[in-house]
Write a structure and sequence with these properties.
Blueprint lengths: L17 E5 L2 E5 L5 H22 L4 H20 L2 E3 L5 E3 L10 H18 L3
Antiparallel strand pairs: 1-2, 3-4
Length: 124
């Protein structure tokens, strides 16, 4: 099975490539999604990178990207495990971005502080 088979963005369907510049890298992708939607994803990712870089005093783009990936995956895992009761009494999965969850910023700050402490202990 090829990696990222579950991805929703198509890499072959769009007639026009969308140009992306992030963390000093510049490239184009093809997708069925609108350029506005892709740009909103890029903008949100850049905001996350800036928060991580500022809170953890990390300047290396690769480290910032790895930490952001870990945080995003953590958000996804938490959303998958967050049950919600429906009116019919059934359980559904909540799929709100973590920014809308209570205490999301304080949770992120605590995680950043713990990661920063551990990276410091490792000399990174």
């Amino acid at each position: 099975m090829p990696p990222f088979a579950e991805a929703k963005m198509s890499s072959i369907s769009s007639s026009q490539p969308i140009h992306i510049e992030i963390l000093g890298q510049s490239f184009s992708i093809k997708t069925d999604d609108s350029p506005e939607y892709i740009q909103s994803l890029v903008d949100e990712l850049k905001q996350r990178y800036a928060r991580i870089s500022a809170h953890m005093n990390v300047a290396d783009p690769l480290r910032v990207a790895i930490l952001a990936g870990l945080f995003l995956l953590d958000d996804v895992k938490k959303m998958q495990n967050q049950p919600l009761s429906t009116k019919s009494g059934q359980t559904a999965t909540v799929s709100l971005p973590s920014e809308h969850a209570p205490n999301a910023n304080s949770d992120e700050e605590q995680i950043l502080a713990q990661l920063d402490k551990r990276l410091g202990e490792l000399g990174l």
